[in-house]
From TrEMBL, chains A, B:
It comes from Facklamia lactis. Its main location: cytoplasm. It is an enzyme of class 2 (transferase). NCBIfam families: PRK09219.1, XPRTase. Pathway: Purine metabolism; XMP biosynthesis via salvage pathway; XMP from xanthine: step 1/1. GO terms for molecular function: xanthine phosphoribosyltransferase activity. This is Xanthine phosphoribosyltransferase. Converts the preformed base xanthine, a product of nucleic acid breakdown, to xanthosine 5'-monophosphate (XMP), so it can be reused for RNA or DNA synthesis. Keywords: Cytoplasm, Glycosyltransferase, Purine salvage, Transferase. Xanthine binds at L20, N27, K156.
Length: 191, 191
């Protein structure tokens, strides 16, 4: 998606260790016009998949998933990372390791919000190792919900997550695919 | 706001201890049409305040703040609750105690995203004791940003947060004001 690639080139920064930072428009501050355009783009790609629910993971996925949901006209369900007093009922749970945060956490959704009647679009901000994505797919499988597609804002194509799930047969659509992060420069996969 | 009150009556549940649970449409699963209507309602109330930025707190505030931002056409900034490897720069920080989660945590925004040029609308899902709100106002004060208004989805009017900040002179607008939660029944303040 040209608009997102251009924004990454314009406002993204690369920290030491080749970490891409997109906090000014994507995961600390959010540009609503950009997100709505991304939501429309996800809709254009997945509109024929009869989506009944969008599943994402707190925190950074929520804004993008919500923008998409305004076009699909279906609920967003966000998996939670921490126990809270009001999430006391039966849950589907999975484990996810975050390489950025260097820890493993549980992700959970309440069972009554995901069922074998659901055709799910999974949306997340980043795809690199595919850890979070694996957890979200696991939640769907536990509920016997069908994963109809996977929409990602930024895929680090030099890491294995995206291809792993494409090879498993999933329709993984990434709006910006980064081929390499080197010497403070972002190069995108030619699409 | 009638639409939100009706939804709370229809789909909200009251857990033992008179905890209101709105997970099916507000803070675990999100109804995008409802949120867009809430965003429009916040816009109608605060549209003359020359808002330059919407500030909220992860996690549950993000969807509502984003919906509002699509009408105001300004960025959403969400304060973060946990340190991450990509939030390494200078931050404004404050402390917030969550009575629901029974813990105190730090909230942070990067300094470069909040300045003395900003006219801020603070948006959050719940207002009860006013702890989270106090932290968000503190962040604005540290940045010398002006708090132009406070938009809340659900205020528990029987707790002191709302009136505390109204008495301090803030324009606190709550879309649903709960007068009491008793015997599994929600009663709203007559508006």
């Amino acid at each position: 998606m040209k608009l997102l690639e251009e924004r990454i080139l314009q406002d993204g920064r690369i920290l030491p260790g080749n970490i891409l930072k997109v906090d000014s428009f994507l995961n600390h501050q959010i540009d609503p016009d950009l997100f709505m355009a991304m939501g429309q783009d996800f809709y254009d790609h997945f509109k024929d998949k009869e989506i009944t629910k969008i599943l994402t993971l707190e925190v950074s996925g929520i804004g993008i998933a919500f923008a998409a949901a305004t076009y699909f006209k279906v609920p967003v369900l966000f998996a939670k990372k921490s126990l809270s007093l009001t999430l006391t009922e039966d849950v589907y749970a999975s484990k996810v390791t975050s390489y950025t945060k260097k820890k493993t956490f549980d992700i959970r959704v309440q069972k009554n919000f995901l069922s074998d009647q659901d055709k799910v679009l999974i949306i997340d901000d980043f795809l690199a190792m595919g850890e979070a994505l694996g957890g979200l797919i696991d939640l769907c499988q536990q509920a016997n919900a069908q994963v109809q597609g996977i929409g990602i804002a930024i895929e680090k194509s030099f890491q294995p997550g995206g291809n792993k799930y494409r090879e498993l047969g999933y329709d993984v659509y990434s709006q910006a695919m980064i081929e390499k992060l080197e010497d403070g420069k972002v190069t995108f996969v030619k699409q």
